[in-house]
Amino acid sequence: MALAILALLISGAWLFLSLHHYDDYEVINSVERADTQGTRFEEFCGNILKYSNDGAFYTDRDNELIWNQTYEMSDPRLAMCDDYLTIYDRKGTMLYILTPAGLQGSIETTMEIEQVCVATQGTVAVLMQKESTGYLALYDKNGNILAQGAVHGEKGGYPIAIALSYDALKLAVSMLDFNDGNVKTTIAFYNFGSVGQNVADHLVGATSFADLVVPEITFLSKDRMIALADTEIMIFEGTQNPQVTLEIPLAQQAKSVFYDTRYIGVVTMDSQESAGHHLIVYDEGGTVLMEHDIEMDYTDIGLLSSGEICIRNENSCDIYTARGIYKFHADFDDTLYQILPGMTGLHYTFILSGETKNVRLK
Question: Could you tell me the pTM of the whole model?
Answer without folding.
Answer: 0.89
